[in-house]
Amino acid sequence: MSKRPRTLDSFFSPPPSKRLRDAGIQTQQSHVTPREGNDDRLDNIQDPSSAQESVHATYPFAVPRLPPDITEVLNFAPATEGRNVDDQPDLDLVYYQPYVPKEIQHDLFEFLRRELFFYRVKYTIKRGPTEMQINTPRFTTVFGLDVTSRFDIDGSVVDATSGKPVARDAYKCKPRPMPQCLDMLRTLTENATGCLFNFALVNYYASGDDSISYHSDDEKFLGVEPAIASFTLGAKRDFLMKHKPTPVGHPSETKPMKIPLASGDMILMKGLTQSKWLHSIPKRKGGEADKGRINITFRRAMVRGGTDNYYRYNVGDGEVYKWDGTRREMGRWQKG
Ligand SMILES: O=C(O)CCC(=O)C(=O)O
Ligand SMILES: [Fe+2]
Fold first, then answer.
1. What is the CATH number of the domain that holds 224?
2. Residue 28 falls inside a structural domain
3. Distances (CA, A) of 192 to 61, 81, 179, 182, 303
């Protein structure tokens, strides 16, 4: 058998012995069943890059590692150089069109849709005296931990400085480490942008009825001028941007924008973009929206409140959904 050429993947990846403990996540060898009455441990040594899956006490089910045919090509991302889009007041974007190489856009989309667990979060908000129930109009999931903590080798949450377990009530939520498939994309994105990220938020828009309304990701827990890297995989959807209202007497000379984000594209939002602009993915009829679109945003939360917020609104306490390949839709997932 010929030796596989040394790829960028092997350059960035730790050696197999270390890889078993990557990023504070428990990994396990799958598809390896020791035969009884026979010391066959040597037979069971497999290339960990193909044999492991990401597991954690908080995961409803294990998430396989990315197959080598995807990782090998992904290592060559970004497929194009980012283009600065900063020709309007307070706007500071870098647009990679695309970031994910064409050869793997479809397989990466299919992999993430098939292998991740999703939620359809419900929550209530108070508008004056009335309480309103909000049904998030898309599937969501989230992984990560703010800078004050990290995952230990055994998957537990420890203080980032002392390495000691955090207090039982440090978080209201149960933080989840990034599975290898998202962690690899996170590392590549950090290298390409020079920004650091500790969270991956994933949205799945199953059809044109799924959406996100105008908002900005300017929560205090992200710090000042946060950088957010936002990936599109699957269906093309319009990404709308408009400047926040300006005070009376200070009319803004800005134009709203429509960016048709296609599979593989990445848009880095930075500088004043979040504090001064709003963005949305509006509902759409027809077109390719019904093929489904995945959006991944990488962000960096600075305090524990950010971690609680992200899990509350992207995992919640409802049912788990998983892609049903036969019905070709997200279906309720039940243990066992
Ligand atoms: O789906 C997208 O492109 C945008 C998602 C978004 O704005 C968010 O999750 O905050
Ligand atoms: Fe957003």
1. 2.60.120.590
2. no
3. 31, 9, 20, 15, 25
Query: What residues of the chain score a pLDDT lower than 50?
Result: 1-51
Q: Which residues contact 252 (CB under 8 A, 6 or more apart)?
A: 89, 243, 245, 246
Ligand nearest to the CA of 142: 1
CB 201 within 8 A of CB 309: no
CA distances from 188 to 53, 63, 247 (A): 20, 20, 40
Domain assignment present for 93: yes
In a domain, 197, yes or no: yes
Measured at the CA of 323, the angle between CA 268 and CA 22, to 5 degrees, comes to 55
pLDDT of residue 27: 46
Measured in degrees and rounded to the nearest 5, phi and psi for residue 292 equal 90, 140
For residue 165, the 8-state DSSP code is B
Q: Which domain covers residue 180, as residue numbers?
A: 67-333
| ipTM (interface predicted TM) | 0.99
Ligand 1 atom at minimal distance to the Cα of residue 232 = 3
Q: Given this model, what pLDDT does residue 72 score?
A: 98
CA distance 334 to 336: 6
- Using CB distances shorter than 6 Å, the residues near ligand 1 are 201, 203, 212, 217, 230, 239, 279, 281, 295, 297
Q: Report the separation in Å between the CA atom of 204 and the middle of ligand 1, taken as the mean of its atom positions.
A: 10
Total of domains in the chain: 1
In the chain, what's the furthest Cα-to-Cα distance? 84
pTM score of the predicted model: 0.87
Q: How far is the CA of 210 from the centre of ligand 2 (A)?
A: 14
Asked if residue 50 belongs to a domain, the reply is no
